[in-house]
Amino acid sequence: MRTRLVLSSARLLDPGTGSFLPETALAVAESGRIAALGDDREMRALAGPATEVVDLKGAVVTAGLVDGHLHPVTGADLTHGLDLSQCADLADVRDALSREVGRLGRGDWLFAWGLDPNVFGDEPVGIAPFDTVLAGVPAFLLLFDAHSALASRRALEIAGVDGPRRFDQASAEVVCDEHGRPTGLLQEDAACELVERVAPRPTHAERRDRLAAALRSMAAAGLTGGHVMDANGASLALLAELDAAGELPLRLRVAPWCQPGTDADGVRELIAVQGTGGGLWRVDGVKLFMDGTIDNGTAWLERPDCHGESTHAFWPDPAAYTAVIGELHRAGTPTATHAIGDAAVRHALDAVQKAQAHAGRPVRHRVEHIETVPDDTLHRFAELGVVASMQPTHCCDFTRADHTDNWSRRLGEERASRAWRCRDLWDSGATVVLGSDWPIAPFPPLTVMAGARHRRPTRDLSRPPHAPEQALTALEALRGMTVNAAFAAREEHEAGRIALGHRADLTVLADDPLTTPAADLPQLPVLLTAVDGKVTFRDVTTA
C-alpha cells in the first residue's frame, strides 16, 4: 500500500458514537481513504518516502466538519467592499459610509454588505437616513439576509429605476412610497439585479482570487466540505478552474437554482447536469425557494406578520413548484428548498409527500432554514425522510431573547417563541444538518456548533439565550456537521466518521470539542485540516 498521510499520537474521535477509538494513529492510502488504524509504531511503519507524517502530540482528530448550507462563490463576490455587520444603529452606519465615501474616487461605486435591519429601529427600512452622506454617490448596500438591498438615489438613477416593477418572483419588489417613488429598498434577487447589472463587475481573475482566498480561510477554520446552495453564472467554471489547479481545499456538493418560470426544458437541463463535476466538487441536487425572509416581509406565513406582510409564496403559482418537485423526484434528483415561514415549510413538505405518493423511489430531499414552524409540522420531517437544514447562528445573532428584534416583532410572540426549533426537530426524529449560510453569517464551524449549544449572541455571550430549550448537546452539534451532513449527501457509507474505507476528510483540534464549553468552542485552535488525505491547512506553530 502506498501511503499518502499518517497522523500519529492522536485522539481519534468518532462522531458516530461520541467516543474515542482505541487506536492512536491512522494511515491514508493514495486513494484518499483511511486504510489503516492502529498504534503509532504500526502506522509509521506504513509510511514511505513521500508520505506526510504528522505527530499530533495528543490532539483530537474528528471526521471533517462540513457546512450544510454555504454560498462560497456568491459570498466571495458579495463580501467585498464595506462590512456593515458590526453597525448597531443608524449613526454607526452613517459614520462607516462617510469614511468609505472619503476613500472613493470620482464616479466610483460604494459597495457594502451585512447591514442589519435592526439598525432602523421603528423607522422604515430605506435609503433616506443615508441620503446626505451618499449624495451623488452610486451605492449598493446589501442587507444581512442577502435577499434585499438599499440602492442610493444616484444608483437608482443610473439603473433607470423610478417606480414599481413586476417580476416573475412573486415576492420581488422595488419598494415605493405612497407617491410611487422608490425608497431605495429592493426586495429579492430580481429587484436587486436592476441595479447590480449596471454596477461595475469584478474581472474573472478578481473573482477567482476572492473565491480561492475565501476557501482557504474556510479550510483554516476547520471545514473540509460544504453543501453549496447555488451554481449561478460562472460558479461552476470557477470551481472547476480551482479544482484543476489543485487549489480547491474543500469538497463541495453543488445544487444549482430552479427559479419560478423554469420550463420543462429547464428542469430537464437541471436533471442532466446532475453528477457532473471534478475531483473535489460535483453537482448533486437542485435548490429552490418557497419564500423570502421574515426580516424584509417576504417570507410565506400562514397568517400575515405584524406589518400585514409575508403573505405570499416566492412562486406566483405554488402548484408549479409542486409539479417541479414531482418531476425532480421521479428523476431521482434531491432537492433543497429554502422555506423560512410556516406556510412555506408546510407547502414544501406537502410537495415532497405528493411526489413520494406518485413515485415511491427513495430521494433525500431537504428543507433549508425552517425558522418558525408549528407543532403539527415537526413530525413530518422524519415521516417523509426530509432533512432539516438549519443555521443556529442566525437565531443567535439576528434575534433577541426578549423579542425586541425586527424578526421577532414582525412575527409576534407566538411565532417568535418557535424560533429555530433544533431540539424539537431532533427529538421528533428528523435528521438535522447544521450550517452557516455564509455570507449571511460567519462560516467558522466551531462558531456554528457553539451557537447550536448556547443560542446566545456571538458578540456578547453574557446576554440571555433565545429559546434555550431548543439547544443541542455537544455531540448532536458535532453530528450535525459530520454524520448528518454525510447522510444528507447520501454519503454515510464513506464520510462523516473515522472508519476504514471512509474518506480521509479530517479536522484536527487542539482539544475535545465535546468537553470544551460552548462559550470557549469558537476559540479552540484548529491545528490541521485534510481533504482526501491531503493537508489543506496546518498551523505550523502547533502542529
Give a short summary of the structure.
The protein is built from 18 helices and 25 strands. The chain has 543 residues and is an alpha/beta fold.
Largest sheet: 6 strands, mixed
Strand content: 15-25%
Number of strands: 25
Looking across the biggest beta sheet, what order are the strands in? 3-2-7-23-24-25
Total helices: the number is 18
What does this protein look like?
- This protein is of the alpha/beta class.
- The protein is 30% helix and 20% strand.
- The longest helix has 17 residues, at 204-220.
- It is globular, with a radius of gyration of 23 Å.
- The chain starts with a strand and ends in a 5-residue tail after the last strand.
- It is an enzyme of class 3 (hydrolase).
Task: List key phrases describing it.
543 residues; alpha/beta; six-stranded mixed beta sheet; 18 helices
Question: Topology of this protein?
Answer:
Blueprint: E1 3-8, E2 11-14, E3 19-20, E4 25-29, E5 34-38, H1 40-44, E6 52-55, E7 60-63, E8 65-70, H2 72-78, E9 82-83, H3 90-103, E10 110-115, E11 139-143, E12 148-151, H4 153-159, E13 173-176, E14 182-187, H5 188-196, H6 204-220, E15 223-228, H7 235-244, E16 251-254, H8 264-272, E17 281-283, E18 286-289, H9 318-330, E19 335-339, H10 342-358, E20 366-369, H11 375-384, E21 387-390, H12 392-398, H13 406-411, H14 413-416, H15 422-427, E22 432-434, H16 445-454, H17 474-480, H18 483-488, E23 506-509, E24 526-531, E25 534-538
Parallel strand pairs: 1-6, 2-7, 8-15, 9-10, 10-11, 15-16, 16-17, 18-19, 19-20, 20-21, 21-22
Antiparallel strand pairs: 1-4, 2-3, 4-5, 7-23, 11-12, 12-14, 13-14, 23-24, 24-25
Helix pairs in contact: 2-6, 9-10, 10-11, 12-16, 16-17
